[in-house]
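Researcher: Please translate sequence to structure tokens.
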Amino acid sequence: MNYIIREIRKNEIHILEDFLYEAIFIPDWYTEEVPKDIIYTNPKLYAAIQGFGTHPDDYCLVAEVDERIVGAVWVGIADEYGHMDDETPSFSISLYKEFRGKGIGTALMERMLSLLKEKGYKKASLGVNKENYAVRMYQKVGFEIVGDGADETEWLMVVWL
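Model: Translation complete:
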């Protein structure tokens, strides 16, 4: 599949709302609909997009297929899932379902890790549900589990840059 990875444009930042919702891990056993407004009512979720693009540590890359944004990875320093400290950017990433499992997410992660290293960051973090298959992809790009995240259902993972 042909795709390009590029920086998000200011007029596209609103799309992070969709990708934040897509980033919510829903286990196979969970059968209820997750309301879209959860991204605004859950403070740890909302922190990932609140004021994004206005802080010095905000960076976002998107993946495009046929001029359509199909995935995004963004980092910032905020009290969101995966927050470690005020010097460590934390990751958020998601792709639309039909574009998962094709290497695009890995490519987005690797490009963002390169960008953060270039900017002088020493490490980055993320929070991930312990049941989420993406844990393996995060480990593949260098993240390691350092303990529980925001609660006992989540891992806190760190990569040293």
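Researcher: Any highlights?
Model: The mean pLDDT is 95.
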